[in-house]
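Bumping with the actual sequence this time:
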Amino acid sequence: MRGNRGKQGVAAGRRLGAATCVAAAGLAALSLGWATQPSLPTKLPEAPKLPERPQLPGKYPMIPGREPTGPSKDDIEVPPREMQLGVVYRTISGKERQVTFTSEALNERINGFTNDVHGYAVRGGDAISADLKAGRWRFKVDSLRTGIAMRDQHLTEPNWLDAAKFPYVEFTFKKVKDIKPVDADAALDTSEPHEPLTKDAKAFTCTLEGELTLHGVTKSVTLPGATITLLPESEETKKLAPGNLMRIRVAYDVLLSDYGVSNDIIAVRKKVAEKISIVTDLVLNQISPAVDEQSLPGKLIPKDLAPDRPKVPEKPELPRPFP
């Protein structure tokens, strides 16, 4: 009995020794296999730098997501009969805030803006005249921004401005009166610091008369206290746009109920005011007739003057750590 047990112990020891040898050989082979694989790079190559987006020179900041463009489907064509009345200026869209509005309700204050106003103005008279002869500009309801995306969406809905049915807010100029010259720098009427205008700038106060279309309703409006500033082309103005510039600024109030906009948020919850304060502040540039005939309506910069969009380099393929 004891002899059998001794033999069994010897056999078990031999089997254990064989298994240990096999395991050791396997580990050695595995280590060898890892050693033959290419090692991981200690540092991945840097991604290529993308070139900066081109923009017009100067200190005028871009508003995120927008930049001055050429032709747009929202541009307004100048009727030939109005082109004969004087010098045509077109709005410079996509940069500064062109229309701002404020709602001072009992329970909430809302500020908003758009920088997507498209249109034109025709100036008659001599080189320093503010005698406007015609004009029309508009913006899309869905271009209004208030700082809250959901609120911006609400503005476009049927119980508000109903962008699907009435996509534009539009002003059509009819007449200018009470024109008086004023100091050009004082005419800026802004609390923000600014550099003095060019010495040749001329400014005038006046009253604008026209028609405002909002929510599908058109009403005649008289807007006193407007300012028209004329800036002849200079090295400074070229930083913004080519050609002579004209700035039209006017502040006025609108009653939403006059344009068929009414709901519980205005009347009951008092979160939006019935009276909306609006400031229209447009900068327009004069396009020469030669360029205008070759361009689409509302084109801001001739094709040969507009900066080319850079080509984005192809993304290099990173080395694979394993075959």
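The tokens above came from a reply further down the thread. The longest helix spans residues 2-36.
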